[in-house]
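Aim 2 progress update. The chain analyzed this quarter is reproduced below.
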Amino acid sequence: MLRREWFIPVLLVSPFTALADDMIPEGQFVPPAYKSLRFDENYSRLFWEATAFLTRPVEDIGGISGSDSATTFWGLYVTHWLDAPRKLGVDLYYLGIANEHGEYASGTGNEHRHTFGTRLFGTHNHWDWNGEAAIQVGTFGNESILAWTASLDSGYTWDTQWQPRLGLKVDVASGDTNPNDVQQGT
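Predicted structure tokens:
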């Protein structure tokens, strides 16, 4: 059963029609700790899919999660399929967060972060790959934010009874070499 005070999903069916939360099928999982708006659009003939969302934490009935009107999280995630069987694609995304009371090891302050990323993924025969890169900019108090990350996960899966996969995963991310300067690197 959905609880209106927990979550308000909105599903965009066409540019002019929105369905309210009582239209979501019974038993569908809905995260209970956020009040959200979500819009999905799928242009299958053009091989594009897009999701936009806006969330804010709310108090649940049991009082486990705290309401926080000082934090907002939003984003846009776009997928473009490069082939008809949808085995090769590229994602582009933007994620933003505003937190009036950010708290980290370097202190507390008003936080605004903007993350821009891309991901290339696919499968061919028994090979698979997933590469992603993102950059984050923003401010935390009087400090600027500049951070980045990149990852690659690829492998080969054998067509046998247990389907073993031999893979390689590499992740790299920026760090903050000096917590006392005026720039955050993570």
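Residues 1-32 have pLDDT under 50 and may be disordered. The chain is about 0% helix and 60% strand. These observations will guide the mutagenesis experiments scheduled for the next reporting period.
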